[in-house]
Amino acid sequence: xxxxxxxxxxxxxxxxxxxxxxxxxxxxxxxxxxxxxxxxxxxxxxxxxxxxxxxxxxxxxxxxxxxxxxxxxxxxxxxxxxxxxxxxxxxxxxxxxxxxxxxxxxxxxxxxxxxxxxxxxxxxxxxx
Length: 128
What we know:
The protein is an all-alpha fold. Helix content is 76%, strand content 0%.
């Protein structure tokens, strides 16, 4: 009986880890924006930070917190967690598109959102 919700619990744990890391990294990037711009440019290219600002990363930090809050509620089998999680993830997926353009759409992120959402929606009937 303990293994009935193994995938659900694993998805919750991975969501909590991923959202926590995202929240912390975007918080650090928005606070230390000037220091992180050279690092971002060294990984990508010189124009990668042209349209970004501390506000852009702060908004992504808020969306990751929303996703983290939802994942924590989901881990306690609360239905409201699904709505917080999905709204945060959809915002994370489309915010770069709104701010920077369609070339920033992440297909891999969309695939993971679909996989995790599928696990959560499959277990929706067991949530309180």
